């Protein structure tokens, strides 16, 4: 990439850099790439590119010959638009450390559930209840992650292994914590061992706090264009056009304080509960017993304060809110840290005769978290159903239950990751399998339900394969109709039909999610009941039953533990490979492109929202260019870039929006976003976008697994959606394409002649006007040359 000094082609939003009439160009095409990213040279089809504005994270590029287009009087520039490329791929797939964001996958998934609520008008309280339930589910995931770290460091390592002579002998690094190996050393007391091991989950909590704070400064601190606040009663078709939608500083700071305090309280409770349980025995020290009760009451009060902070306030989107919350919220993490320090001091006090036996009370902790998560998901489903019945949308996935289903998957991911780490550490510490008792029984039950879940998933894969074959057979006749003048080749027809069939499977995704989340909820409930009712592993609980039942239980337990270990190893290996391999890191970046488009509304430790940087960038660029030049602007978005383009267009002032045309191709606006996020990309929202911009054209292919039609209701649909583009461009060899044309699918939409033709028509509809007077919406198109 050619680096040159930055050339600012326009001024700020309040003052144009050039006066109308002095420009040499009146048409601009702003290109926005999609998932996976690309280079400005590929987007502009020129090896010589110059960055005109932006930084190393996200920037706008032009061809070297077009840098001074606004200041040039060359009439040749008026023959076509000046192309610009907005490159934002470094926001999601930059340096290697971002591969570690895989550990935050459950947080990202539960954050998506917040934005999947159904469309509802006139039910503000129900909408707030929906957001409240998702925020509480996100809080349980933070507690689950820290509890898993406590299970590994405190229970398995410090309590069980260091307290067992056989296990401590095999791991010399734990020798100074063992009463037998260290001959009663100072650190060998159970409370001091727990206090020292608490450094691990505390460091994890502090690391999450630091990453959340740092990523906010790097990604989400860009302020949108200044606009007056919206009236309280003005709902609008979508919230994406509100002044403060892409600036959630206040809520993220509030949730960050609450989740940090929750993590510290979890560590303090894990350390203090063991000491308090010892002090409450008959004949225990009365002073320490009283101190334990005081600390437990203080921790409970702090936990109530955390829940109150999470429940009290949601997002403030109707205005650009730069203020932070009162001192009480900001002082919550320091208060929790002080309580943790006091708890560590209390646990480390001398207690003669105290020995570590059995497990720490992990079954109660993990069982309580699983129960709360299941109840939250069920109530969330009821609330989502009520919202969907208020304003039904036949295209919404699962009849409005997409959010609860995804929240259930987020909880399942958190449980699998927590159980996987605990199982692997236990197997590593306990080489013989008999020296320590291992992780809580509930985690073993949860691992045992993985094989039945995999059987269900294999059944879904078989159903999808069967459905793909049926669609492929049906598509062969459609391929023959699309190429009526060709001598059909059976292999060529089969490949085209199979590609179309595989692309159509995207629309079956909601059924897969519904079945997976439903089965996960039922199996999780069964695991919780089995663990609490028997307090034994599945194999032990099945002893005395029919041989087939006992064998199935032991097989599920062994296979589940093995599968969790394999999954954990693959997870770490993939993360390590992505850290070193740019191609693998870009694959992870594609996952974040889709998952981190939305602001952090429920979980502050989720990966950062790149759109809170990208949407203000695009909005400022379009607003300043149209104000400075009064010219025509076509924002051209591919795939995820079309979603960014639509979000930026909603943020424009009405006068600037009327001078903008929208060209989308391979766009998931309706096919994915409209169905999964109906409250923000539903039919009403997309129809309003069509009314507000001067003109909009959407291109798609039947072979594209991501892009699809916008499907606006009534006669507006054909105005936006082009007929499906032919793919491949030619069935056989032609004079223009002497070699076999490839099946393009989701890529290279510019290779189709329809792309240039539709762009020309959009530019013809837009006429250059003075900055104060927007162009009329409907004008007759000049005849083609």
UniProtKB/TrEMBL annotation:
> Where are the bilayer-spanning segments?
129-149, 194-211, 257-276, 291-311, 332-349, 369-388, 400-422, 442-465, 512-533, 556-575
The superkingdom listed in its UniProt entry is Bacteria
Q: Which UniProt keywords apply?
A: Membrane, Transmembrane, Transmembrane helix
Provide the residue span(s) of the region labelled Disordered.
1-26, 221-240, 760-785
Q: Where is the composition biased (Basic and acidic residues)?
A: 760-770
* InterPro entries reported in the protein's UniProt record: AB_hydrolase_fold
Q: What is this protein called?
A: Membrane protein
Taxonomic source organism: Streptomyces variegatus
